C-alpha cells in the first residue's frame, strides 16, 4: 500500500487538496454564499492560506533535523501553493475589491507600508516560483540555494502584512507571526545547537 | 427593489396621544414577558417589536441593507474582533435593567431609565452608515434627537463637548476580558456640543422595527450619520457635558489613524487604505455584484452639516 503511493501521486493529491479551499470559497463567493462582505472574506481567506503554505514550507527543514521526518520532496509543492494563493489574493484585491482601478492601486502601493510589504512578499514568491523548476536549478547551480533563501524575508513581510491588515493586534495574527519568527530563529541557531536539540528529543 | 420587509408604519400610524399612552402599557407588558423569555433565551436573543413614526430627516432613495446582514456583520469589539462575534457572543449580555446618567456641566443632571427612553416619541430614520474600514450599510434606526435629551438637562454656558461612555461588563462582554489590550475599556466617544445638538444626531433604541439587538448596541446607542461608524458608541451608560475635549477610545489607540472628528471624507485617506470608495454590505448575487461605490463627503449629509466645520482644515482635523 505504502509502496503504491508514489511521491508524484502524493504531490498531485497535495495540489488538489491545497487548492480546495480556494475553489470552494470561489464557488461560494460567486453564488452569494460568502457572507455579508464576500469580497473581504475571500481576500482574507486567500491571504491566510498563502501564509499557511509559506509556513508549512518553512517547517520542512526543521522537521527533518529535529524529528527525522523527510518531506523535502514536497517542499516545492508547498512553496508553489503559497505562491498561487498569493497570486489569487493579489488578483482578488486588484480585480474584485478595487475593480482594476489602477490610479487607486498605484497610490496604495506608493504610500501604504502594509500594501508595500504584501507586494514585496508577492514579488519574491513570484521570483522563487519562476525558478522552481529543474532547468533553473541546473542553470543557477549554487546560486539557486542563495536565491531561495529569499523566502525568509518574504515570510517576514507576509507576517507583518497580516498583522497590519487589521486595526488592532489579534491573537490570530500574532500566532502566525510567532510561528514565522520561531521558524526563522531556528535557522540562525548554530548548527551545533540544532544538533543538540535534535539529539535531546 | 425592496430586499426585505420590516414593519414600517404608515402615515396614519403617527400616534395620537391616547394611543401613545396606551402603548406604554403594551410596552411594559411586552418587557415583562420579554424578561421571562430572556431568562431562558437562546444566544443572541433580543428585539421586541417597536413602532415609530417616519422621521422627517429620514433618507430617501436609499435601499436598506438586509436585516440579517445589519445584525450579523458588526464591529463591537466588546464582544470580539470578528464581524460575526457580536451576534454569536452577546447572548449573555443583559440590556435590562438599564439607566443612562446625564451629568457634567448641566443645570439639571438626570438619570434616565431605558423604559422612559423607549416611551418617548420615537422616529424612524433611514440613514447611511459608513465604517472607517471602507464598507457601508443603510439602516432604518429608531430613536430620538439627542438634542431633545440635552435640552432637558439644560447645558451650562461653559459646556463645549459631550462625552459618552459605554458599559463596562467584562463578565458579559468577552472582548473586554481579552488578554490582548485592544482598547481602553470602557469605550468612550465624544462630540462637540454643536454636533451633539444637530438634528441629525440621534440616540437610537431600535432598528428595523425592533428594539436594538445586543450586537447592535442594546439598549441605547449613538448614531451620527455623517461620521465614521466608530463614533456611534454603543450600550451607553453615561453622557457627560464638559468644557474640554473628552478622550475617545480609537483616538487613544491610534491618534494618527482615528481622529476626534472622524467625519466621512473621501479626500482624506486612512493611513492604510483609501477612503474614496466603499463596499456596500449585503449586495446579493455574490462578489461580482459587490462593486464599490464612491464615498460622499460627510457620508452624503454635507448639505446639512458642512457648516459646522466652516473654516476648519479637515485634513488636520480628520
UniProtKB/TrEMBL annotation, chain A:
Binds 1 heme b (iron(II)-protoporphyrin IX) group per subunit. Keywords: Cell membrane, Electron transport, Flavoprotein, FMN, Heme, Iron, Membrane, Metal-binding, Transmembrane, Transmembrane helix, Transport. It is found in: Cell membrane; Membrane. Pfam families: Ferric_reduct. The chain crosses the membrane at residues 12-30, 42-63, 75-94, 114-130, 150-168, 174-193. Belongs to the MsrQ family. Its cofactor is heme b; FMN. Heterodimer of a catalytic subunit (MsrP) and a heme-binding subunit (MsrQ). This is Protein-methionine-sulfoxide reductase heme-binding subunit MsrQ. It comes from Nguyenibacter vanlangensis. PANTHER family: PROTEIN-METHIONINE-SULFOXIDE REDUCTASE HEME-BINDING SUBUNIT MSRQ (PTHR36964). The lineage of its organism: Bacteria, Pseudomonadati, Pseudomonadota, Alphaproteobacteria, Acetobacterales. Part of the MsrPQ system that repairs oxidized periplasmic proteins containing methionine sulfoxide residues (Met-O), using respiratory chain electrons. Thus protects these proteins from oxidative-stress damage caused by reactive species of oxygen and chlorine generated by the host defense mechanisms. MsrPQ is essential for the maintenance of envelope integrity under bleach stress, rescuing a wide series of structurally unrelated periplasmic proteins from methionine oxidation.
UniProtKB/TrEMBL annotation, chain B:
Binds 1 Mo-molybdopterin (Mo-MPT) cofactor per subunit. The keyword Glycosyltransferase does not apply. It catalyses: L-methionyl-[protein] + a quinone + H2O = L-methionyl-(R)-S-oxide-[protein] + a quinol; L-methionyl-[protein] + a quinone + H2O = L-methionyl-(S)-S-oxide-[protein] + a quinol. PROSITE patterns: TAT. Predicted to be exported by the Tat system. The position of the signal peptide cleavage has not been experimentally proven. InterPro entries: MsrP, OxRdtase_Mopterin-bd_dom, OxRdtase_Mopterin-bd_sf, TAT_signal. It is an enzyme of class 1 (oxidoreductase). Its cofactor is Mo-molybdopterin. Signal peptide: none annotated. Keywords: Metal-binding, Molybdenum, Oxidoreductase, Signal. It comes from the Bacteria. Its EC number is 1.8.5.-. Gene3D superfamilies: Oxidoreductase, molybdopterin-binding domain (3.90.420.10). Residues 94-250 form the Oxidoreductase molybdopterin-binding domain. Part of the MsrPQ system that repairs oxidized periplasmic proteins containing methionine sulfoxide residues (Met-O), using respiratory chain electrons. Thus protects these proteins from oxidative-stress damage caused by reactive species of oxygen and chlorine generated by the host defense mechanisms. MsrPQ is essential for the maintenance of envelope integrity under bleach stress, rescuing a wide series of structurally unrelated periplasmic proteins from methionine oxidation. Belongs to the MsrP family. This is Protein-methionine-sulfoxide reductase catalytic subunit MsrP. It comes from Nguyenibacter vanlangensis.
Amino acid at each position: 500500500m505504502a509502496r503504491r503511493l508514489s511521491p508524484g501521486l502524493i504531490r498531485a493529491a497535495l495540489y488538489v487538496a491545497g487548492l480546495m479551499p480556494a475553489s470552494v470559497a470561489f464557488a461560494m463567493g460567486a453564488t452569494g454564499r460568502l457572507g455579508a462582505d464576500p469580497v473581504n472574506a475571500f481576500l482574507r481567506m486567500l491571504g491566510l492560506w498563502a501564509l499557511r503554505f509559506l509556513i508549512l514550507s518553512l517547517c520542512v527543514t526543521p522537521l527533518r533535523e529535529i524529528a527525522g521526518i523527510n518531506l523535502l520532496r514536497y517542499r516545492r509543492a508547498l512553496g508553489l501553493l503559497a505562491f498561487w494563493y498569493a497570486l489569487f489574493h493579489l488578483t482578488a484585491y486588484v480585480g474584485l475589491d478595487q475593480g482594476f482601478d489602477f490610479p487607486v492601486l498605484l497610490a496604495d502601493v506608493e504610500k501604504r507600508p502594509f500594501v508595500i510589504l504584501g507586494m514585496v512578499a508577492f514579488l519574491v514568491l513570484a521570483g522563487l516560483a519562476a525558478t522552481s523548476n529543474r532547468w533553473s536549478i541546473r542553470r543557477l547551480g549554487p546560486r539557486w540555494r542563495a536565491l531561495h533563501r529569499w523566502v525568509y524575508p518574504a515570510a517576514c513581510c507576509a507576517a507583518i502584512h497580516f498583522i497590519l491588515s487589521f486595526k488592532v493586534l489579534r491573537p490570530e495574527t500574532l500566532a502566525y507571526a510567532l510561528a514565522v519568527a520561531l521558524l526563522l530563529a531556528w535557522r540562525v541557531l548554530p548548527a551545533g545547537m540544532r544538533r543538540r536539540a535534535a539529539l535531546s528529543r | 427593489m425592496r430586499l426585505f420587509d420590516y414593519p414600517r408604519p404608515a402615515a396614519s400610524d403617527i400616534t395620537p396621544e391616547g394611543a401613545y399612552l396606551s402603548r406604554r402599557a403594551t410596552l411594559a407588558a411586552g418587557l415583562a414577558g420579554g424578561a421571562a423569555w430572556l431568562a431562558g433565551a437562546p444566544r443572541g436573543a433580543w428585539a421586541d417589536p417597536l413602532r415609530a413614526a417616519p422621521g422627517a430627516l429620514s433618507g430617501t432613495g436609499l435601499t436598506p441593507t438586509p436585516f440579517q446582514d445589519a445584525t450579523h456583520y458588526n464591529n463591537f469589539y466588546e464582544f470580539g474582533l470578528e464581524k460575526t462575534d457580536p451576534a454569536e457572543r452577546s447572548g449573555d449580555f443583559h440590556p435590562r435593567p438599564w439607566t443612562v446618567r446625564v451629568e457634567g456641566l448641566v443645570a439639571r443632571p438626570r438619570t434616565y431609565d431605558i423604559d422612559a427612553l423607549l416611551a418617548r416619541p420615537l422616529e424612524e430614520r433611514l440613514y447611511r452608515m459608513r465604517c472607517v474600514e471602507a464598507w457601508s450599510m443603510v439602516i432604518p434606526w429608531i430613536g430620538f434627537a439627542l438634542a431633545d435629551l440635552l435640552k432637558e438637562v439644560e447645558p451650562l454656558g461653559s459646556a463645549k463637548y459631550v462625552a459618552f461612555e459605554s458599559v463596562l461588563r467584562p463578565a458579559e462582554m468577552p472582548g473586554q476580558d481579552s488578554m490582548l489590550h485592544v482598547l481602553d475599556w470602557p469605550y468612550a466617544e465624544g462630540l462637540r456640543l454643536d454636533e451633539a445638538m444637530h438634528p441629525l444626531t440621534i440616540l437610537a433604541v431600535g432598528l428595523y422595527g425592533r428594539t436594538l439587538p445586543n450586537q447592535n448596541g442594546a439598549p441605547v446607542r449613538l448614531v451620527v450619520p455623517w461620521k465614521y461608524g466608530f463614533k456611534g458608541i454603543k450600550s451607553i451608560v453615561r453622557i457627560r457635558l464638559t468644557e474640554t475635549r473628552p478622550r475617545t477610545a480609537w483616538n487613544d489607540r491610534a491618534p494618527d489613524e482615528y481622529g476626534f472628528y472622524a467625519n466621512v471624507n473621501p479626500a482624506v485617506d486612512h493611513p492604510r487604505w483609501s477612503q474614496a470608495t466603499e463596499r456596500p454590505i449585503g449586495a446579493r448575487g455574490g462578489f461580482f455584484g459587490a462593486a464599490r461605490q464612491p464615498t460622499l463627503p460627510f457620508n452624503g449629509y454635507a448639505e446639512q452639516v458642512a457648516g459646522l466645520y466652516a473654516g476648519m482644515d479637515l485634513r488636520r482635523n480628520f
